[in-house]
Amino acid sequence: MRLTDPDAPLLRQVCARLDDTGLTRLGVAVSGGGDSTALLHLLAACAPDHSVALEAATVDHGLRPGSANEAATVAATCAGLGITHQTLRWHGWDGSGNLQAEARAARYRLLAAWAGAQGLDAVALGHTRDDVAETFVMRLGRAAGVDGLATMADDFHRHGARFLRPALGLGRDALRGFLRRHGLGWADDPSNDDPRFDRVKARKALETLADLGIAPETLAEVADNLAETRATLRQITADTARTLARQQAGDVVIDRAALARIAPGIARRLLLAALGWVSGADYAPRREALAGLERAIAAGRAHTLHGCLIQPGDTDLRVSREYAAVKHLATPLTAPWDNRWQVTGPDPALTVAALGEGLRDCPDWRDTGLPRTTLMASPAVWDGPRLIAAPLAGLAQGHAATIHPSRGDFFTYALSH
Question: What residue intervals traverse the membrane (predicted)?
Fold first, then answer.
C-alpha cells in the first residue's frame, strides 16, 4: 500500500500512541467494520518503524449468520499483512438482559483473556470521535454527570488487560476515506442500522443536531472539556482520600466525621472509588442505589452495595468485600483471587477460596484486629474441604496474601477512577 498526503494526519494520530506507550507487542481488535479495519491498516503501516509487533483478534458473537464469514475475511486480511489473527467466539448469551451491553462486556472479557494468553502489552480498539459523540448523546438522555459525559479514556485497564484507543481523535468519515483511497473493503454490521438499539438512535439524533450546527466533532470537544474537569475532580478526590482514608487488609477505612464535613460531591466520589477498588466492578452503581447508601451511612446503618459491605462505626466507615459476593469463588493458588488478591505458598496445587466459616479454625483471628466480616471474605487456602491457611486471619502456615499489582493501591485507583 502506497501512502498518500491525505493519509499523513491519520498516521500521525495513530502512530503517536506507539511513541508514548513503550509498547513492543500490541493486539488489535478488528471486527471487520470500517473503523477497526482502517485502524488495522494504519497500525500495520507505522508499527515496523516503532518496533512494535502486531497481533489481531476478532470477537465473533455468533448472533448473525454472516459473522463467521466476516471473521474469516479479517483473518485473510491479516494474513496478507503478515499479522497473526485469532477468532474469539462468544457462547455466553442466554437471551436475557441487554444484548448490546452483554455483548460489549463479553468482548472485553474475551479480548483481555486473549491478551494475557498471548503476552500482549495492550489491545488497540477502533473507537472514533463519532463514538464519543454518540456516547455523549446516549448518556445525556440518562441525565449523566461529568464522568458520564466526559470523553471515553484513550488508555485504560479492564479485566487485567490494558486497552488503547489510538483513533479516538479521528472521525469515522476520515477512516472510511482512507479505506476507499486504497481500495480496501470492510463489512457493515446490519445492527448498526437497527433502530431498536440506543446507539443507532443516538446516531440518528446526531443527524438532526447537525441541522442546528451541533456536529459530532463539537460534542467530542465538549466531552474533551469535561474530561479535564473530571481529571481535576479525581485529583481532589485522591488528595482527600490520602488525608482521611486508609487501606487495611483489602478494606478502605474512612474517617466518618471528616467524610461528613467535605463537599457532598467529593464525598460521593470517595465512596464510589472505595466501592470500585474493593469490588473490582467495571461500572459504578446507579445513582438511586448510591443515594440509598448515603442515607444508610447518615443513619449509622450497615449496608450492602456493589458486592461490598459498608459498616459505619463510632469513628470510621469501613468498606469491605461482601462475603456473599465471593463465597462461591475459587481459583488455583497460582491465579489472582477475586481479581485483586495474590496468594503465595509452597503448594501451587491448592485452591484459594473465601475463608467463610473456616474462621472458626483460626484461633488467633481476634489478635489481627480485623472485623469478622472482613476475614470471612478474605482469601484462604484449601485442600478440598480442609482449611490449610488463612493469611489475614493469623493462620499463615507459610502463605501470604497481598493485593495484586494489577489492582494497585486505593489512592492510585482514586486518581484514575
Answer: none
The domain at 5-219 falls in which architecture? 3-Layer(aba) Sandwich (3.40)
Any known ligand binding at 378? no
Residue 33 annotated as lining a ligand binding site: yes
How many Cβ atoms are within 10 Å of 392's Cβ, its own excluded?
A: 23
The answer to whether 49 is annotated as binding is no
Cα–Cα distances in angstroms (integers) from residue 62 to residues 69, 101, 190, 224, in the given order? 11, 15, 14, 35
3-class DSSP assignment, residue 152 = coil
Strand 316-321 versus strand 308-312 pairing type: antiparallel
For 241-259, write each residue's pLDDT tens digit: 999 999 999 999 999 999 9
* Strand (E) or helix (H) holding 279: helix 264-279
| 292 assigned binding-site residue | no
73 Cβ contact partners less than 8 Å away, ≥ 6 residues apart? 32, 187
C-alpha to C-alpha distance for 118 and 309, rounded to whole angstroms: 36
The alpha carbons of the chain give a radius of gyration, in whole angstroms, of: 24
Closest listed residue to residue 204, CA positions, set 213, 191, 195, 212: 195
* DSSP 8-state code for residue 35: H
Q: Is 51 annotated as a binding residue?
A: no
Per DSSP, what are the bridge partners of residue 89? 60
What residue spans in the chain does CATH classification 3.40.50.620 cover? 5-219
Average pLDDT on 370-375 reads 97
Question: What separation in angstroms does the CA of 35 have from each of 127, 166, 174, 251?
Answer: 7, 11, 9, 41
Structural contact between residues 219 and 133, judged by C-beta atoms closer than 8 angstroms? yes
Q: Is 191 marked as binding a ligand?
A: no
- 4-44: pLDDT as tens digits: 888 999 999 999 988 866 789 999 999 999 999 999 999 99
Q: Is 287 left (phi over 0), alpha (psi -120 to 50) or beta?
A: alpha
